[in-house]
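Researcher: Re-running this chain for the archive, since the previous output was lost when a drive failed. Same request as before.
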Amino acid sequence: MTRGKEKGMVLAGGMRQRIRIEEATLTPDGLGGFTRDWQTVATVWAEITTVRGDEYFASGQLATQITHRIRLRWREGITPAMRVVFGVRIFAIRAVIENDGKKRSLELIVEEGVGS
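Model: Regenerated structure tokens:
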């Protein structure tokens, strides 16, 4: 038995977090506007890595911006209009990157605390 990466395979060893990928749907509110609801598109295993955390002042208050990288197996149709939910944490997708052009994995560049 061989161990390691087989041709065309993505090892899932680091993908230990169960995340939901959600897409917004707009529902008429009856007053001429819309309410935004989030529907689960997929629940998948992923690896979440903190890339950067910044603190800054906005409107006279200290705010925090945390950026992460989420790695998952390749999946069709994920866009920056979607969001990722991990437990009670919400991540806005800022970029979707396919690294090798072989549709093995995706990297999502996300920002925590926005996009809800």
